[in-house]
Automatic annotation (TrEMBL):
Protein name per the record: Stage VI sporulation protein F
Domain of life: Bacteria
Species assigned in the record: Paenibacillus thalictri
InterPro entries (alphabetical): SpoVIF
Amino acid sequence: MAGKDLSKDVLNVVKKKTGKNISAQDINKLASGVKPSTMSSEAQLKQLIKQVSNMVKVPVSDATVNEIIQAVKSSKLNPGNMEQLMKMMMKK
């Protein structure tokens, strides 16, 4: 899957799951602050989840935040491979 196709797919998944439109620029702005270390830091992951939640104006409970963090930490994904993470998340 090419990068542009993935971006379009991500935007479609966000729209489908939340009913909210989000621009590619919004995603790029948020993603520009994500580093491989973000995926291994619980505090940084929590901050990222909250930023996404605020961006799409969909509240995320603390329990759900913790589930997402545990899923990321327990996965065998390469933290530097965001495309692999996005594909995994889009399947849910």
